[in-house]
Amino acid sequence: MTELETFKDLFDYALWANTQWIDAAKGIEGGEARLRHILKSEEIWLSRCQGRPADIDEEEELGQTAIRNHAGWVNYLANADLNADISYHSLDGVPYTSALRDILHHVVNHGTYHRGEMRGYYARANRDDFPETDYIGYARQGRAGRQ
Prior knowledge:
Layout: H1 3-26, H2 31-50, H3 62-78, E1 85-89, E2 95-99, H4 100-124, H5 135-140
Antiparallel strand pairs: 1-2
Helix pairs in contact: 1-2, 1-3, 1-4, 2-3, 2-4
């Protein structure tokens, strides 16, 4: 698997993991906001990479946002130069330049971090009915046809 194929696989994983959490996030205080934060961040980073304004619809159904983000990333990665430097501004307006491969790692890891945070919400509520979305679970189920 090439590095670019690996990144596509990681974005496939992110879609799988995000969709596993859609119903669960709605079932715990703070979960839906945290999942929406993950999805909003994916869109913001994609827009930065593409050099365009973010297209965030706060009212869009979470599953539709996850699918739209995934399609955008897969299309973007089809012609991406992983060595490219991406110049952008933080939400505070501070200019930065980052390597595309570092941004891609960040986007996937950011989602993993916040899904773990949602898992913590379940633990604090003494609930264990949360989805297991570790990468190995994705890999064990087989990658084909999961979107």
